[in-house]
Write a structure and sequence with these properties.
It is a single chain. With 236 residues, this protein is mainly α. Helix content is 72%, strand content 0%. The protein is elongated and about 65 Å long.
């Protein structure tokens, strides 16, 4: 098969054959599912001994490795080494979800939400985002929040945003601050909203800076402060 995927980004400037040799040595020494998966993915992605890589992935998938099953979902989705087949990709995601994989549930939720390969279904999207979130997949919390607000469930949406923000999902911070500021889905807390916005602005969030500039300039929910308005306005 053609070696179409060997590039500087994947190899970090290293010799691809040397990368594979080291991974084979590591797999011989460790003999774990994880080491076999790393080797197989490298062989497939770098285009070196793809046949062996796919064989290993198939063995792992048949043994219940959700990582291997999700890799096949990617290959079918992209049409790499197989004919592009969104239906088979979706079946792979469903199989991994049935085995309890959090990322699979998240990806299924996104497909239902965006209508990727399936008919858009917001209820199904929320169902799978809830499932992924319950399994500890933090990215699902943000999608869950968006889906809940869209479905008219602000209490659950705000709670999901709070979990996201506290878990380190930066893009959830502004939305959570707005919930606190306007009492959308939870009790109003202007002081906490401003604290979050100031932290976000200090980290370079332009939306947070713009909101603070407006608030201090107009006196919206805070005392007017032209100096602060200028400081945050400069970051807009």
């Amino acid at each position: 098969m053609a070696n179409d995927f060997k590039n500087e980004e994947q190899t970090g400037g290293q010799n691809p054959e040397e990368i594979i040799r080291k991974l084979r040595d590591a797999d011989d020494e460790e003999g774990t599912e994880a080491s076999a998966f790393r080797l197989a993915v490298a062989e497939v992605d770098l285009g070196i001994d793809v046949k062996e890589g796919l064989l290993i992935l198939n063995q792992l998938a048949n043994g219940g490795s959700t990582a291997a099953i999700l890799k096949f979902a990617d290959l079918f989705e992209e049409g790499r080494y197989y004919k592009k087949d969104e239906k088979r990709a979706f079946q792979c995601l469903k199989k991994a979800d049935e085995l309890g994989d959090a990322r699979a549930a998240y990806l299924i939720g996104r497909k239902y939400r965006l209508g990727l390969g399936v008919k858009p279904n917001e209820k199904q999207a929320i169902r799978y985002f809830f499932k992924a979130a319950d399994r500890g997949y933090l990215k699902a919390e943000y999608q869950l929040a968006v889906a809940c607000f869209t479905a008219g469930q602000p209490d659950e949406g705000a709670a999901a945003l709070k979990r996201c923000f506290e878990g380190g999902i930066r893009e959830a911070g502004y939305d959570y601050a707005m919930c606190l500021l306007y009492g959308d889905g939870l009790k109003k807390d202007t002081k906490e909203a401003v604290r979050i916005l100031e932290k976000l602005a200090a980290d370079g969030d332009e939306d947070a800076a713009a909101k603070l500039a407006f608030m201090y300039r107009s006196g919206f929910k805070v005392d007017r402060d032209e100096e602060k308005a200028k400081v945050y306005g400069a970051k807009e």
